Protein: TolC family protein
Organism: Psychrobacter frigidicola
Amino acid sequence: MKFALSSLSTAMLAGILIGLSNHTLANINSEAQSIDKQYNELTPIAAVQANEGVVKNTAVQQKNALNLSTLTDPITHKRIDNSYPLEVSSFLSLEQAQNILLQVSPKLAANQAAIAASNYQTDALKTIDNPFVFAQVSASAYSLQADIDLSTLKNGVVNGVNNAGADIGANVGAIIPPTPNLPNFGELIGERIPDSYNLKRSGTRTGAGVGVAWPVYTAGRTTALTGLSDARTQEALADSVLDKNELYNTLIERYFKAQLAIIAAYLREDAYDTLQQTDHMAKRLFEEGFISRVERLEAQSALADANSEAVNANNDARLAMIALQRLLRTDYPIKPTTPLFLSSRQLPDVTYFQELALHHHPGLQKVAAKRAQAQQLHALSDTGYKPTVMLYGYGQVEEKPSWVAGVSASWKLWGGLDKTATLASSTAKIRQADLSEIELSDNLLLLVEKNWHDVNNAQSRYQALQSNVDLSAEVLRLRRLGLQEGVNTTVDVVQAQTQALKARTEQAQAANNYVQGLAALMQSCGTPLAFNAYLNAADIRLTTLYEE
């Protein structure tokens, strides 16, 4: 029992992957129609199957995402959310191992989570310029205590009253007869005004209101921010594809290295069995006096060496199977059932694979995403001195409410980031992306050509070694017959056995080199699952110990 990992946004990611896959599939189909007239029909089929595999895996993820739960990782013992149990057989074909790898790889699940996070950020930014409506409720209690100095006011009032009385007396003294002395009204009033007043107030206050703020013009800042987030999502997608392609290549490397190690162990066991027969024959001949004691000891020494080599080969095979087991995160060794293979047909011309690389390699998609980010940063920097226009309003929720509404526009006049420097920086980043695309394209073309030659070299090497295998097998047969007739010695038989083992091992190694070179070629083209089409079309298959 294993558990597979999923991300929180499986449905959303599935839609993205399906969209990308359909686009890629259309491109490959159009290319295949034009190239099919010139090259072997195998390659276009491979490209189509590669993308169909992506869609198929997406459908599997959607189905499994229906019953997600929290499970414990058997290696780290960490509890992982959004997972589902998965039954994994110990006998796996390469295609089965590929499907399982997509479901159990923590790296791919982490990439899916990163893509989901980036998509959610983009969705969040899309509403940044929508109206912002808010409600405000307040409740407060207050207590106010203060000593108010009234002496200045008091003196002013007294002086004012006295001055006013004097002016009136001077103006009407000639008209009105003299009156008895009147009281000093200024002093009378001043006596009633204190020199200070101690103010004390306390109470509570409540209020409520509704407001709105709507940025109706942001000079393109919102569009630039959303575009920047979209470009970052595209970069995360490209990184995910890069990691997935690398994992596919790692799986093929470990899968067929395990298969090669199993073949080597089988050959060593076969050589040991053969030398056991030779040793038995040498023992009988020695007892009958046909060979010397030295020849008898040579046979025993060769048998001991063969036994040691067989044990070492078995240990190497076990280690290779454990490496495959670790990649697929099982508790038991994985037994590969897909044999090493080779096609006697020549590959299409290298230019075909170079065109595939220039159109489908995720590294170029990542560079394009980097360039898009730089363009959006340039657009954002260009809005530095443009205005922001906002509508706003606020009203109280009371019996006799107060309200305010209006429009505001703001400009940055000075300060903050230097617009000229930020524009120059984003322009330099765009140039960096353009030059990086050129460099990456050159490197991809060279890498594709190298891998293409590696595949062809391994193919020719395998075919050349077939004569060595036939020759060494025939020599071994004759040497064993010669030993029975007394013509050859045990040393001759051991040497012939060694040469036969070497020839068969070298041929198996050449087949593995072909497989690894083909996987590297498909990865450098950006279509790693096209490897499966070459596997299915291969006309030469080596012996495998395990079968489904």
About this structure: The chain is about 65% helix and 15% strand.
